[in-house]
Design a protein that fits this description.
The protein folds into two domains: 246 residues, Glycogen Phosphorylase B (Rossmann fold, 3-Layer(aba) Sandwich); 175 residues, Glycogen Phosphorylase B (Rossmann fold, 3-Layer(aba) Sandwich). Helix content is 42%, strand content 17%. With 430 residues, the chain is an alpha/beta fold. It starts with a strand and ends with a strand. It is built from 15 helices and 15 strands. Keywords: Glycosyltransferase, Plasmid, Transferase.
Length: 430
């Protein structure tokens, strides 16, 4: 039985004729005007904002005119060719954390009219909507006749489901809304194969391009040890935020098991908000690790290579989510062996040739830490294979190549043809 749940309609893209006239097959992508909508603080040194910066810079390198709408929070950074536009944050909304939160929902609600105002005043050829901004674009696109691309760094229904015990019907509604946004899009960008499959399931036939994150290590920065990262003996290192889904508690417990079994060295943790750092310090003290755990707090992205160079082993203990952590790509490029949980968030990119993969349990983590600290040959073998893999598949050059091909093959031709996608309309078959 086929039931129409919303009337289908089509709308012409406002600039379709102009785009067709501007497209030059020999020169490649024409200089189009795009608005990236990123409902995050910008710039802050964490996953999605880093990915947004890479996307904006990639579009500029293709000759596009780029505006970026983000929350009014974060550092001002130099991005030639990118105009940063801010969405105001009401009192009490500052310090928006990663992932889903009611504070984030409130900040999104303020961003929606700001986005509408921009679409009304400026003639954009395309909106690239990051994460939940796809829902804003789904609502406003038909009104202002501007197509959008979903930029999927995570599944919003999964984020909410991981944080709250949702009734089944609520989870189904959230998934249906996510699918509707995908079906209304011109195309989609994802950061990993699992999210690419999700988008294809939501919208069969939708052009989808996976743009994996890349190494953030700058060879020009050198490897001199920072003053706050000089330790005797082997070092197990984690870099990233300290939200629960990252599994840093698991890493701490695993390190405690390794220490109990006689392992030497230190656990060094870089990143995290003050509250998370304090909670982790209390947990380290409870486990009797004391001075064996160093919590350094946030450090500049530009120095990531210098810190990783001080590690003996690097770790990604993530326990939730589909997307592969951004840190993994810098870890693979660090020349240090990677210890990670054997979960889909990692195994869609990692395998036993380039990483030590273990079950997400403290005992398994502890045994692997001890083995990696003790086995020089194993460390060298994993690190060499990992660096070879990242240079071939996850370098900045590979990212730009994939983005350029996607724009030229899938995006510009559909824009130039005035591709009439079906916004807010679909059939549910049952």
């Amino acid at each position: 039985m086929s039931v129409t749940v919303w009337p289908k309609f089509r709308f012409p893209f406002r600039n379709g004729a102009r785009l067709a006239a501007r497209e030059d097959g020999a020169a490649g992508v024409a200089p189009l005007r795009v608005l990236i909508v990123a409902p995050q603080p910008f710039f802050v040194p964490r996953g999605t904002p880093i990915a947004v910066r890479a996307l904006a810079e990639g579009l500029v390198s293709e000759g596009w005119e780029v505006d970026l709408l983000a929350f009014d929070e974060g550092d001002a950074i130099a991005m030639p060719g990118v105009t940063l536009r801010r969405s105001p944050l009401l009192p009490g909304l500052r310090g928006v954390p990663p992932g889903f939160s009611l504070r984030k929902v409130a900040a999104d609600a303020v961003m929606l009219p700001r986005l509408a105002l921009l679409l009304a005043r400026r003639r954009y050829d395309l909106v690239i909507a990051v994460e939940e901004a796809a829902y804003m674009a789904m609502l406003l696109g038909p009104i202002f006749r501007v197509p959008y691309i979903c930029d999927v760094d995570s599944s919003i229904p999964e984020q909410i489901g991981d944080k709250y015990d949702l009734p089944g019907w609520v989870a189904r509604v959230l998934s249906a809304v996510e699918a509707r946004a995908a079906r209304g899009a011109l195309a989609a960008i994802t950061c990993c194969p699992a999210l690419e499959r999700l988008m294809r399931d939501h919208a069969p036939g939708l052009p989808v391009q996976t743009l994996e994150d890349v190494t953030l290590i700058d060879p020009a920065a050198g490897t001199a040890p920072p003053r706050d990262c000089r330790f005797e003996g082997p070092v197990l290192m984690y870099i990233g935020n300290l939200e629960g889904y990252q599994g840093v508690d698991l890493l701490l417990e695993g390190f405690a098991r390794a220490v109990a079994d006689g392992a030497p060295g230190h656990l060094v943790i870089i990143g995290g908000a003050e509250a998370h750092v304090a909670a982790l310090r209390a947990e380290a003290d409870r486990l009797g690790l004391g001075a064996r755990v160093a919590l350094l707090g946030p450090r500049p992205i530009e120095a990531i290579g210098q810190y990783l160079a001080q590690a003996t082993v690097v770790a990604s203990p993530r326990v939730q989510g589909r997307n592969t952590p951004m840190k993994v790509y810098s870890y693979l490029d660090s020349g240090r062996p990677l210890l990670a949980t054997r979960l889909p968030t990692h195994t869609q990119v990692l395998d036993d040739e380039i990483a030590c993969l273990v079950d997400p349990a403290p005992d398994a983590m502890g045994r692997a830490i001890g083995q990696l600290f003790a086995d020089d040959g194993l460390r060298a073998r994993l690190a060499t294979a990992a660096r070879r893999r990242v240079q071939a598949e996850y370098s900045p050059e590979a990212y730009r190549r994939k983005l350029s091909r996607f724009l030229r093959r899938d995006v510009v031709p559909r824009l130039s043809a005035g591709h009439a996608h079906e916004a807010l309309g679909a059939e549910t078959r049952g």
